[in-house]
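Justification of resources, computational component.

The compute hours requested in this renewal are based largely on the per-chain cost of generating structure records like the one below. Each record pairs the submitted sequence with a full C-alpha cell output. That output is archived, and it is also reused by downstream analysis tasks.
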Amino acid sequence: MGWIIAIIVGGIIGWLASMVMARDASMGIFWNIVVGVVGSFIGRFIGSLIGVGSTLTSFDIPGLLMSLLGAIVLLGIANMVQRGRVR
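The structure output for this chain reads:
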C-alpha cells in the first residue's frame, strides 16, 4: 500500500513542480510521477540533513514542502541540461 501512496503523492508533487517551472505542457503523467518521486527523495534527504522535515519516511507538511522543493530543483537541473538555462 505504501508504494501506491508514494506514486499518487509523487504524481501530485511532480505535477505541482512542473506547473511552477512552466513545464506542465511538455510532461506526461509518467514523468510527473518520476519527477515527484525522485524529487521527494532529493528534498527529504536535504531536509533531513538541515533539520527541516522529519525523516525520509514521515508524512507531514514540512516533508511535503521539502519534496516539492526537491522536485523543483530536479526540474531546474533538467532545464539547465536541456536548454542551457533555468526558466
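The chain has one domain: 2-83. Residues 61-83 form the longest helix (23 residues).
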